[in-house]
Specification:
- With about 160 residues, this protein is an alpha+beta fold.
- It has a single domain, classed as Glycoprotein, Type 4 Pilin (2-Layer Sandwich), CATH 3.30.700.
- It has one helix and five strands.
- Strands 1, 2, 3, 4 and 5 form a five-stranded antiparallel sheet that branches.
- It is elongated.
Length: about 160
Amino acid sequence: MHERNKGFTLIELMIVVAIIGILASLAVSAYQTYTVRAQISEGLEMAAGAKVPIVDAYTNDGIAPADRTAAGMTPDPTDTRGSFVSQVVVTDGRVDITFSGPRAHQAIIGKTLSLTPYVTPGNIVMWRCGNAGAPGGALLQNGANHLPATVEPRYLPSSCR
């Protein structure tokens, strides 16, 4: 009887390598999306610091603050920046986040995400984020219209899609 060599053939090894390559390419793509979403989250956290003074200014004056100064913030929009955010601008109550920086992913450099305040009939301020639909209610008095996000929708949190 002939004894057969035990081991893998070249074809079997090539198939395994091809499968590993496909899985690795999927993992890299998913990781890049996760990384960009984390960078977008930093922008939303920075915008949260602007939302409170805007609501306070609206509560006190009855109109949307025209800019950062009217909202009680510093006048320079680059004062609110981070590793992936270059500035946070306030325009008639709307908060515009601009992404940039040496560590920012190429997919979001120069892109913006806007948060727009709306007031409900119960006088509660609700925020519209990115490409999400308008919440119930109307824009704040003298408030700026909402701008859709220039960031790709797949990178936005579900509340902003």
